[in-house]
Amino acid sequence: MPVIPAHERLIVALDVPDAAAARAMVVELSDSVVFYKIGLELAMGTGFFGLLDWLKAENKKVFVDLKFFDIPETVARAVKNLGDRGADFCTVHGNQAIMEAAAGAKGHGLKVLAVTALTSLDRGDLDDLGFKCDVAELVLSRARRAFQAHCDGVVSSGLEVERLRKEAPRELIAVTPGIRPVDNKMDLSDQKRVMTPAKAIKAGADYLVVGRPIRDAKNRREAVDAIQREIAGAATP
Q1: Which of 49, 152, 158, 160 makes the best surface tag, with the fewest CB within 10 Å?
Q2: What is the mean pLDDT of residues 9-30?
Q3: Do residues 79 and 53 lie in contact, with contact meaning Cβ atoms separated by under 8 Å?
Q4: Contacting residues for 38 by C-beta, under 8 A, at least 6 apart
Q5: What's residue 168's pLDDT?
Q6: pLDDT of residue 38
Q7: CA 121, CA 187: separation in Å to the nearest integer?
């Protein structure tokens, strides 16, 4: 894989109510962040695509996290449209046919990432859903299928990414959510499988998605700078 500059490894999740709040946060963080994630909350508000276009005009990278899950043809058309808008990453859920359709429709540099297991799920949740398997085994299985489907990467908890790196090709991009800084005192809320930035990078994650620890910080810029320093230190050989 091409070398990823350390300051581009942080993806800040714009988990805010509307596009205006998202733009204000991007302006506030200025040049400290290159990569942003926009997801369902913003997609259900007004100005989603206007925000995407604005971010690209500001020379930012954009991860559209909508976890496409529909019949393969519909997913393929959605992915194609998103690529035409200039998005850099997008997520897809579902079976082999869905992943293959998404991977086959990407264009304009768009990378398709397969979701493995949400970081809000643990073994008990998987049991409730009818998946009688270990979380790590499920993640590895999904990663193998994603690679076979020609997806560019996966979304994986840091708790599984180290094993994924031992078994999956290095070419597979690993994007890790559920990141919590060491000194973060906030309630984990719905996150169950979490890891610090340094540990996730050392485990093999390429990109880290961080939301609430930055959004809810008293000083967002200081929170970002601290995480960026931690990433840079962990990414240095």
Answers
A1: 49
A2: 97
A3: no
A4: 14, 22, 48, 51, 52, 55, 62, 63, 64, 65
A5: 72
A6: 97
A7: 16
Give the C-alpha separation, 153 to 115, whole Å.
9
Q: Can you read off the two tokens belonging to residue 225?
A: 């700078």
Indicate the length of the chain as a whole number.
237
Give the span between the Cα atoms of 231 and 179, in whole angstroms.
11
199 catalytic per annotation: no
Amino acid at 174: A
Tokens of 35: 């990569």
Q: What is the pLDDT of residue 192?
A: 47
Contact present, 119 and 73 (Cβ < 8 Å): no
Give the chain's domains with CATH numbers.
7-235 (3.20.20.70)
Catalytic residue chosen out of the listed positions 60, 67, 80, 111: 67
pLDDT in tens, 62-97: 999 999 999 999 999 999 999 999 999 999 998 999
